[in-house]
């Protein structure tokens, strides 16, 4: 048989192929020749044929028929054959195939070979694809090689030991004595692999972590020698001595110093030296500084050292490299809760990042800016964030508007500033604001009686400007595609809805013209009705907006005197509207005019001031945790929930046999919510319609008188439980009981994430039977950091007056690795102490 072509010639031939079919033909022809050579037991060119087969495997073609030939090469006495054989085994074999067990004896023999390179090949193969069975059989040989005097063998054995511990964790103790001795080696390769091995051991065993904390002084000395050593051509990278080893030691110190005062104290000085002496002009130095910052933040470091770490991140924000700026923003976002004042010093730099062209940097800067808002800087920060809201991309507007609302509610210096800010957001963000914004603003306006005149005049001006804009855009939209037209149609619907509600509620104040405005608005009844009629007639108004406008007209029939007949005519027109919701309103309002006119003034009188301390737990169940308000701030005006959002909850609990039938159209969002809760027999008040806000009966009114510190003196005897654990996401419940009201159980939810990717847009929803009363407070965040580096906490309050066994159903929605996830579960294992 003629000698087969060499690998180099095969590569050249394949590269000359002009089409995929021509390349396949060349591969198939060569594979046939290789198969023939294997069948003839041609040992002369076996090494060459396997090498060509591996190249074909790298191109994506099947090469499994060469597995046994790899084993034959491994058994050969020639080093060149062993090298190709072991390489083929690592590429073509894995632990799922029984063929790999045939290598065990060959690897054991080669681990005892008198040539270090053959030993290295065996260690690399075992560390790459060794199964649990192979690791158990060969662990003793690897442990023996860890004690070798040859540094080349020791570093290979250390990496192999890492693989063995991952496959068979119970073998960890076997390697502990030899691992300690590795840190006394001067060879940097051995030190690096020793740090990797110790890190893996510490992450897997708390006992091993305590054992290796005694080595912190030794690790500190190694790191100090690296910093203080002069130029070494063998290890120098951009003027820094072995940055890879420095980074690895810093990571190990971070694990050893976490939650340990003594270990943290021992490494404070060296961390300060690394932070101050590392060159920042090259990316290598920035990598070391970043690891230093992470270590400082994770251990129990001194306050001055933490400030130094925050300042390093502040310098990163000025770097031209976008990756470095993004890393700095992400790290500052994790740090802001513990070192708020230190991060505040870099507020101007963070705000400048809002103007960055990169959307990832812009989003992180926005999240960090909201975290920095407090009572002293709220005016300045809101000015910057409103400017950002005006110029940012569409995908940012919803989150930015929601963040501004929450910050303004928490830190507003005056009620007037609060109302002005919310109106500015409605004007700027248009319909990108979230559904709960309209009822929240209506609640704020209702409860601020001294600003009713000012507010209604401001909103009426805004609505007049919006109508002018609508007319201009309506002309433009006639020539646009349907998708573009829909985008125009949704412009500023929330602003129009709030304006219509206020005009209907406080129309008499609008006509009076007496308010704190520099130029009070002078309008007539006819002008007000013209504006509301234009809302009803505009094809850019949504069904909900028309409902607000029609209800506003009806209310004005008791506020205005000379235009009641015109209002009657307009209302009667919509009694035959094709919009069922609008038709129902008009028919009911006509009945008021005709049959119950004597009751009309009382029915349409001004809304009373609503108590902020009241809350409807069921309303909060239907809200997302990123948007839900605290109990004392829950909206009690008529909410306009997204029909899709509420009906998505229908399948959470099931068991709707006795549920009343509810229309699924836009006119019955409240019915959809009740259908959700029927499964657990929860009694809920019917929500008011979108355009006629009414006070509601709240489930948790009985909790309003409980002092805020009543839960601090809780009984500590209730054990925690794991409510949910799947796919790396874990939710724990801890419990407290109130001394003031023993019927109240406070459940603290803690969500953690052990995967290597963050969980974002995390939403927790819950429901309980009707004999209980449930109340969800706002969560600490909507992102669960990866690798258990942080978590989300949320407080759940449950009132159980009948001392019945607690049962709760959950729904979790979140985004992980770019995929939206939804999980449903039930918790029935609450400790008896939590409900007895």
UniProtKB/TrEMBL annotation:
Entry-linked InterPro entries: Adaptor_Complx_Large_Subunit (IPR050840), AP1_complex_gsu (IPR017107), ARM-like (IPR011989), ARM-type_fold (IPR016024), Clathrin/coatomer_adapt-like_N (IPR002553), Clathrin_a/b/g-adaptin_app_Ig (IPR008152), Clathrin_app_Ig-like_sf (IPR013041), GAE_dom (IPR008153)
Annotated PROSITE patterns: GAE
Keyword Zinc in record: no
Keyword Cytoplasm: no
Stretches assigned to the GAE domain: 716-831
Cited Gene3D superfamilies: 2.60.40.1230, Leucine-rich Repeat Variant
Regions that span the bilayer: none
Membrane topology: Peripheral membrane protein
Pfam families in the cross-refs: Adaptin_N, Alpha_adaptinC2
UniProt family annotation: Belongs to the adaptor complexes large subunit family.
Location(s), subcellular: Cytoplasmic vesicle membrane; Endomembrane system; Golgi apparatus
Keywords: Cytoplasmic vesicle, Golgi apparatus, Membrane, Protein transport, Transport
Listed GO biological process terms: intracellular protein transport; vesicle-mediated transport
Source species taxonomy: Eukaryota, Metazoa, Chordata, Craniata, Vertebrata
Record protein name field: AP-1 complex subunit gamma
GO CC annotation terms, alphabetical: AP-1 adaptor complex
Region of interest (Disordered), residue spans: 613-670
Classification via SMART domains: Alpha_adaptinC2
């Amino acid at each position: 048989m003629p000698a087969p072509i060499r690998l180099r010639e095969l590569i050249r031939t394949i590269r000359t192929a002009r089409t995929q079919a021509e390349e396949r033909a060349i591969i198939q022809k060569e594979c046939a020749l290789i198969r023939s050579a294997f069948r003839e037991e041609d040992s002369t060119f076996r090494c060459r044929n396997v090498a060509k087969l591996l190249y074909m495997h790298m191109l994506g073609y099947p090469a499994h028929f060469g597995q046994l030939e790899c084993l034959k090469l491994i058994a050969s006495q020639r080093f060149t054959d062993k090298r190709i054989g072991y390489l083929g085994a690592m590429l073509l074999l894995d632990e799922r195939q029984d063929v790999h067990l045939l290598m065990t004896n060959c690897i054991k023999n080669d681990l005892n070979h008198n040539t270090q390179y053959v030993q290295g090949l065996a260690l690399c193969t075992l560390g790459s694809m060794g199964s649990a069975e192979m690791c158990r059989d060969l662990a003793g040989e690897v442990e023996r090689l860890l004690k070798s005097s040859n540094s080349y063998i020791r570093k290979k054995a250390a990496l192999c030991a890492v693989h063995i511990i991952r496959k068979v964790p119970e073998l960890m103790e076997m390697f502990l004595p030899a691992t300690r001795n590795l840190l006394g080696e001067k060879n940097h390769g051995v030190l690096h692999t020793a740090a990797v091995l110790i890190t893996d051991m510490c992450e897997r065993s708390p006992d091993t972590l305590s054992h290796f904390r005694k080595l912190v002084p030794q690790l500190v000395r190694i790191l100090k020698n690296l910093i203080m050593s002069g130029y070494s051509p063998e290890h120098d990278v951009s003027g820094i001595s072995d940055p890879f080893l420095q980074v690895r030691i810093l990571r190990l110190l971070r694990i050893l110093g976490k939650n340990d005062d003594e270990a943290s104290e021992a490494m404070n000085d060296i961390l300060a030296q690394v932070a101050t002496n590392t060159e920042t002009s090259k990316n290598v130095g920035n990598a070391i500084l970043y690891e230093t910052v992470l270590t400082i933040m994770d251990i129990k470091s001194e306050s001055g050292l933490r400030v130094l770490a925050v300042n390093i991140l502040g310098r990163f924000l000025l770097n031209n490299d976008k990756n470095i700026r993004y890393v700095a923003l992400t790290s500052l976002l994790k740090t802001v809760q513990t070192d708020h004042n230190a991060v505040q010093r870099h507020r101007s730099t963070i705000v400048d990042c809002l103007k960055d062209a990169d959307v990832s940097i812009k989003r992180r800067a926005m999240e960090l800016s909201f975290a920095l808002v407090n009572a002293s800087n709220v005016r300045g920060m809101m000015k910057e964030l409103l400017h950002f809201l005006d110029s940012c991309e569409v995908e940012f507007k919803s989150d930015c508007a929601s963040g501004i609302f929450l910050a303004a509610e928490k830190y507003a210096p005056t009620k007037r500033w609060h109302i002005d800010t919310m109106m500015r957001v409605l004007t700027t963000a248009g319909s990108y604001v979230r559904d709960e914004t309209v009822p929240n603003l209506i609640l704020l306006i209702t409860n601020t009686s001294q600003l009713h005149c000012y507010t209604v005049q401001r909103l009426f001006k805004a609505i007049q400007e919006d109508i002018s804009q609508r007319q201009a855009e309506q002309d433009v939209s006639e020539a646009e595609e349907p998708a573009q037209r829909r985008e125009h149609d949704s412009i500023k619907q929330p602003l129009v809805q709030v304006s219509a509600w206020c005009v209907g509620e406080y129309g008499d104040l609008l006509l009076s013209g007496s308010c704190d405005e520099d130029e009070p608005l002078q309008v007539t009844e006819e002008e007000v009705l013209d504006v509301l009629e234009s809302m009803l007639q505009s094809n850019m108004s949504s069904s909900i907006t028309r409902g607000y406008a029609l209800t506003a007209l009806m209310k004005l029939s008791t506020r205005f005197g000379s235009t009641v007949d015109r209002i009657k005519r307009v209302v009667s027109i919509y009694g035959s509207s094709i919009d069922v919701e609008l038709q129902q309103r008009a028919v009911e309002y006509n009945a008021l005019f005709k049959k119950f006119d004597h009751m009309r003034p009382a029915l349409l009188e001004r809304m009373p001031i609503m108590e902020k301390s009241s809350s409807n737990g069921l309303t909060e169940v239907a809200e997302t945790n990123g948007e839900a308000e605290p109990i004392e701030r829950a909206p009690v005006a008529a909410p306009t929930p997204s029909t899709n959002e509420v009906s998505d909850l229908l399948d959470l609990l099931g068991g709707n046999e006795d549920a009343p039938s509810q229309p699924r159209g836009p006119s019955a969002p409240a019915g959809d919510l009740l259908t959700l809760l029927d499964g657990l027999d929860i009694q809920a008040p019917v929500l008011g319609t979108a355009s006629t806000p009414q006070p509601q009966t709240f489930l948790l009114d009985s909790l309003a008188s409980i002092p805020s510190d009543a839960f601090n003196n809780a009984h500590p005897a209730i054990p925690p439980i794991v409510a949910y654990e799947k796919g790396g996401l874990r939710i724990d419940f801890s419990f407290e009981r109130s001394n003031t009201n023993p019927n109240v159980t406070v459940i603290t939810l803690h969500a953690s994430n052990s995967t290597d990717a963050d969980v974002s847009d995390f939403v927790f929803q819950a429901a309980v039977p009707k004999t209980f009363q449930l109340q969800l407070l706002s969560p600490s965040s909507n992102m669960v950091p990866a690798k258990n580096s942080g978590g989300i906490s949320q407080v759940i309050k449950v009132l159980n007056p009948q001392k019945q066994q607690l049962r709760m159903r959950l729904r979790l929605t979140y985004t992980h690795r770019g995929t939206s996830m939804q999980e449903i579960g039930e918790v029935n294992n609450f400790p008896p102490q939590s409900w007895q």
